[in-house]
Amino acid sequence: MNDRQGNQTADLLITGGRVIDTRAGQLVEADVSICGDRIADLHAPGDGPDARETLDARGQVLSPGFINTHLHVESSLVTPQEYERMVLPRGTTTIVCDPHEMANVLGQRAFDFFLDHARTMVLDMKIGLSSCVPATDLGTSGAVLRARDLAPYMDMPEVIGLAEMMDIGGMLGDDPVVLEKLELFRDRYVGGHLPLIAESDKLGHFRKLGLLDDHESVSHAEGAAKLKHGFNLLIREGTAAQNLEALVGLIRPENAGRLAFCTDDRHPNEVRAEGELDHIIRQAIALYDPSQHGPNRDAHVLRIYQMATLWGAENFGLRDRGAVEPGMLADLVLLDDLEDCRAATVLKDGRPVDAARLAERPRIDPQEYGAYGTVRFKGRDQLAPDDFAKPASGRTVPVIRIVPGQIVTEYETADLSVGADGNLLADPRQDIAKLVVVERHGKTGNIAVGFVRGFGLKDGAIASTLAHDDHNVIAAGSDDQQLARAVNRVKELGGGFVLVQRGEVVAEQPLPVAGLMSDRPWEEVADRQDALIAATARMGLSVTDPTMTLAFLALPVIPDLKLCDTGLTRFNADSHPVPQRIAG
User: Which of 33, 321, 379, 572 has its CA 20 to 30 A from that of 508?
Assistant: First the structure.
């Protein structure tokens, strides 16, 4: 059977359930027939065709598979196949991934790595080619990709378009390198990256350049401004940035078709404890407020599912998914409770998802892409405490202030003590730690030193090679000796996270694949991350996941004050409208 004409036998008939009609935003009672990887038809209850197999869905609701509209798999700390094994059983059947973390280390080899993974996976991994490698010229990355480097990949079926264009200065200044990439993808999907930008002239300019959506909004007013100027809004709820509560008031009928969900970054221990897209769905439903969303709670619940499915698909022109209707991919999630959103059964391409099916995939070896051994300090194997000295030219210095639950930071100044050697010291009494960034691609040997407030770090250090977007080594510590211990150990691991207290390593997470991902099962990575976070709690650190917070302190395309391997940078809507270096 492949149409409505009564052909004899379906491969699978799902009976007795209610179906989310994501076009109309309502529930309908229907049996669903499937032939091959497609939905063949919907039938009145009990009126379906003969089928080779039958699935009883009485008491359950059938949703289209969930779509995570923007993420960086590398920031989940696991390889794409492990990410699939982690989230597909939870109902996420399509992800839109930007591999720019790995691309900043390996260049085009990162695209090859992800494309080869995508071709083996049950889950659909659509790839947005990384638009900004490097993100800016303010730091040192491992690779540079121009339009000519993207062009050979753009027509591959796994490629969806150009991922988040984050070079604000290049777009505002008509940089020919940026414009060449945008022109290459003029008639294709181009994602946006517009943090804290709500000015009409800037938003209008970015829309004219072809940007279609944005996932960086952190306030209702900012999100509303972007919607008004024609951007679709991808509401983000991840490990580092949780923006759902601030933006949930925009989930209203007048914004139908303009909203979707994404995680951006989500660690596996949090996926295990809470979920991925399923977690966001539950959170968005729980945040229902009749004063914002109208008196009909049921309509709000169904709108959330539209965001997680159809509207996300439409944002990318994916016309074969997001709805339970004839001709669509048979990507389905069977739920016992619509509001609780926990997958009882997941079908991908018409077949149940189980461990045996996922075990059938051929393994991708990172070694074939040069992904091991990527942490290299120019001209030396180890660093010494003296490498992190900060000579005092005065006691008042710029300080990065962490904003809890966000990846934006704030600019502050503080007065610090000066040691007998003439160097500035961290000050735990003011909750100020020393922050260092060490170039790790073997190019310049740069080491930058600054200060950060908000970790609650009194005695110890934490180091990481996951430091957006150049992915140099970044570390925060109470003193130079412990900083050196953490930085040197992270190099020995080939990348990852290291936590030091009283001069000893107390927890670590090896990430040897490009210094970004583990080559171990996701459950083991989750266990190590839980252990590391528990260790940071025992040390009294005040952020829930300091590894993710640390990862964004070197990203100059996110406001305000950041530290690259070349020094401090600022970016804000007022005094520094494009990212730029500052003294300090």
Answer: 379
Residue 551 has what DSSP assignment? H
Q: What is the DSSP letter of 65?
A: P
pTM: 0.95
Residue type, 558: I
Q: What are phi and psi of 446, to 5 degrees?
A: -60, 145
Any idea what the Cα angle at residue 258 is, between residues 257 and 259, rounded to 5°?
Answer: 100
Q: Cβ-count burial of 174 within 10 angstroms (0-12 exposed, 13-18 middle, 19+ buried)?
A: exposed
- 3-class state of residue 41 by DSSP: strand
CA 122 from chain center: how many Å?
Answer: 20
- Indicate the DSSP class of residue 231: -
DSSP state at residue 490? H
On whether the CB atoms of residues 395 and 425 are closer than 8 A, the answer is: no
Q: Do 492 and 457 form a contact (C-beta atoms < 8 A)?
A: no
**What's the alpha-carbon Rg for the chain, to the nearest Å?**
24
Question: 224: buried, middle or exposed (CB in 10 Å: 19+, 13-18, 0-12)?
Answer: middle
214 exposure class (CB count in 10 Å sphere: 0-12, 13-18, 19+): buried
Q: What does the pLDDT profile of the chain (584 residues) look like in tens digits?
A: 444 545 579 999 999 999 999 999 999 999 999 999 999 999 999 999 999 999 999 999 999 999 999 999 999 999 999 999 999 999 999 999 999 999 999 999 999 999 999 999 999 999 999 999 998 889 999 999 999 999 999 999 999 999 999 999 999 999 999 999 999 999 999 999 999 999 999 999 999 999 999 999 999 999 999 999 999 999 999 988 899 999 999 999 999 999 999 999 999 999 999 999 999 999 999 999 999 999 999 999 999 999 999 999 999 999 999 999 999 999 999 999 999 999 999 999 999 999 999 999 999 999 999 999 999 999 999 999 999 999 999 999 999 999 987 889 999 999 999 999 999 999 999 999 999 999 999 999 999 999 999 999 999 999 999 999 999 999 999 999 999 999 999 999 999 999 999 999 999 999 999 999 999 999 999 999 999 999 999 999 998 889 989 999 999 999 999 999 999 999 987 888 888 999 98
| Residue pair 426/474 in contact by the 8 Å Cβ criterion | no
**What phi, psi does 531 have (nearest 5°)?**
-65, -40
Q: In what order do the strands lie in the sheet with 9-15?
A: 38-43, 31-35, 9-15, 50-56
**Contact assessment for residue 171 and residue 205, using Cβ atoms and an 8 Å cutoff:** yes
